[in-house]
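Q: Sequence in, structure out?
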Amino acid sequence: MELFGSTFDDSMFVETKDRECVILESYKAKVCEPQWFREDAALDTDDSLERQKVMKFRGDLAVRKGEHQKALEAYSACLSWISDNNLNIRRDVLEGMARCCIKMGQKEKALEFVNLLSKEVSNTCHLTSLLLLKVSLYHHEDVGSKISCLQKLCSLLPFNPWHWLELGHTCQQFLRSSNITESPKCHVKVQNNEDVVDLDEDTIWLKACACFIRSRLLLRILQQQQSSFVLKCNERALDEIHQVLQTLNPTETTLKILTEVMSEDLIPEKMKEDYQDGESLATVCVQSFRERWWDRVIQTNL
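A: Exactly. Output:
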């Protein structure tokens, strides 16, 4: 009987054929000066790819400087030079144009670019970027749509503590605005192009508590594998959540129930196997926020 690994394949001792030596031709690397793309001569070419690069770099630089109109013009020019099969650059440029319009207060125009991006979503990475872009679009003016987008982000990436934290802050901001205006409690459901969002103050208060508790649970789990400035950022977020929960002032019973509900799926094995960025949407089945968490909260008769 032969022990596993005690024999060798004969092919290991066969002499290999002499490989032909291939002499490489001399290669001269292209050297570019800093911000070479700003020069007029950079566009003196018939190569559409080079023109695309020049305008893309100009747009990115303008965004960095806060010159959003200039960036929008550069991105628009870049878009005309992008080949049909270069979908990644096309999405990047369209998102840049949308964000420029948002910064300049051109919401309707930004929405047009968002709709174009929506038609080309093919994986979870695309969907995540699109939802984050919509959050920026609805940041100040449409609380219902912003909450809806954040709920979808939390459903798509349920173990990302920062999306939960942002959703909690958005709910808290809504409560603050209601108190500042001293208006009577809202009991309305807002229908928008995203979803139906219940803006009843009691509902939003409870949802804020649940989101901050979920974020705290996730941040505490992540603490075990963090160090340096990442750990400090985590600790600052935990301190912030502690202060916010003191302001919201839920009862001990409410805290206990919400902690139980929002921690039910926080199993290490399940967290590792959850959907990853870039996965095809065809294999992703995302439960709605209400189905996955909210109905469970309501069933506890809080």
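The first strand starts at residue 189 and ends at 191.
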